[in-house]
Amino acid sequence: MADPRGFLKVRERQTQPRRPVPVRIMDWKEVYERQQAGTLHDQASRCMDCGVPFCHQGCPLGNLIPEWNDLVYRGRMGEASERLHATNNFPEFTGKLCPAPCESSCVLGINQPAVTIKQMEAEIAEQAFDDNNVEPILPQRHTDQTVAVIGSGPAGLATAQQLTRAGHTVAVYERDDAVGGLLRYGIPDFKMDKSILDRRLEQMRAEGTRFRTNVAVGKDISWDQLRRRYDAVVVATGSTIPRDLPIPGRELDGVHFAMEYLTESNRSVAGEAVPDQIHAKGKHVVILGGGDTGADCIGTSHRHGAASVTTLAIGKEPPVERPEHQPWPMMPTVFEVQSAHEEGGDRTYLASTVEFVGEEGRVTGITVAETEFVDGRRLPKAGTERTIKADLVLLALGFTGPEPAGLQQQAGTEFDDRGNVARDGYYMTNTPGVFAAGDAGRGQSLIVWAIAEGRACAAAVDKYLMGETRLPAPVAPTDQAISML
Ligand SMILES: Cc1cc2nc3c(=O)[nH]c(=O)nc-3n(C[C@H](O)[C@H](O)[C@H](O)COP(=O)(O)OP(=O)(O)OC[C@H]3O[C@@H](n4cnc5c(N)ncnc54)[C@H](O)[C@@H]3O)c2cc1C
């Protein structure tokens, strides 16, 4: 433990600096800047090395947080990176994007602001790249086993990297023209610049992972063909069916799924020509639904130069402080202030959307009513309707599950009651040799879960192929013990 009295001496929690709002909304560069070494050292000293580090349990990856806090405090950033990479393939993604459930379960957080764990992770990862410390890790031996990973989001990438390093020949199939899943075409550059993704892919390519883009499995090549060609197949296709809102006026021009808007914006920021791009310039934008997707639409709309940005949520406004029914060390639902929320826009809660209204086929407004709870159901309260001006409506209502993509017909693989790919305690589906990881199996979730599942799924695949495995398995998809792997 670095400084036994550190948490008493440094009581203030200081997170990474952010670029000023008026400056950052003029471009697509990242909002967060690097932290100064002195501040980082002081913040690291707040970690109490509390003996029973609940942060390990809060993090799906089981990150060894007190260990790397101690190393940061001592300025041993290279070793900190080694400990960080021991449990996380892509700490630069989670350091920038994770909502940090670890911080919710930090023991210091019981009566003081939690340790700035996420900032520590981000800085260790960036320093490692600055120091050319992130090198390809080549397998010690090659097996004669082959694996196809379908989908190149964080789950597919983590699975592929682990299995490549275990010596298997791994090909990642991606239907998009570029690798990365939601890291590429969902999450905007102001949250994570695409160069951060590309430099990690460079490492993966150098290690031997192969990428096949523009191949939609189930259409361009069947699941059955893949099963015959490879010794194991991993479904990491994400949860991509957007939840719709089939109310009057849904067909009007100007009402779009959030992902249509974000994908086009990401392509345009990457320098692609996007004909008839959905654009918010000068428009009154209304976003239905909160969460990460909603926040990304807010930030993107402001950078497009929207006239106004309003978010409508059907639920109650969450409390600012941790509510009693979600005590420490749980991750509470509290009023979220992401960087995009700092940039402006209104947020209205308990708003039920009744219909989209329009003129000449284009949306001009939304009729909303207050939400009332009847028998536990949320319904629009009669007599409270009002119409809000809207030229662009973005539906950010979540995702209902993975696309079927012929998986059931071609490979006989079953889906569960929630519409996700069904798997057992070891990530295997009912089709022998076919596994599922990430949002495709657990439903819409987080990057940290996608990486954790990717790592654990890789261990399960390795054991299936070789009879035993040395790969770590941080999480089980069900309550069944993964320790048997
Ligand atoms: C807009 C948005 C913002 C988000 N922001 C955050 C955030 O800030 N922090 C956070 O922790 N989480 C965030 N999330 C959630 C997070 O991105 C996901 O949980 C995570 O990406 C899931 O990873 P995955 O690998 O399972 O799937 P995905 O990232 O969805 O990747 C699946 C990939 O599979 C490909 N694919 C699908 N079907 C096929 C097929 N038949 N053949 C070939 N390829 C196929 C898709 O094209 C895609 O590239 C966000 C989600 C969205 C939508």
From TrEMBL:
Species this protein is from: Zhihengliuella salsuginis
SUPFAM superfamilies tied to this protein: alpha-helical ferredoxin, Nucleotide-binding domain
Pathway it works in: Amino-acid biosynthesis
Keyword Metal-binding assigned: no
Entries under Pfam families matching the protein: Fer4_20, Pyr_redox_2
Full protein name: Dihydropyrimidine dehydrogenase subunit A
Domain annotation 4Fe-4S ferredoxin-type: ranges: 37-69
NCBIfam families: GOGAT_sm_gam (TIGR01317)
Record keywords: Amino-acid biosynthesis, Glutamate biosynthesis, Oxidoreductase
Amino-acid biosynthesis as UniProt keyword: yes
TM segment ranges: none
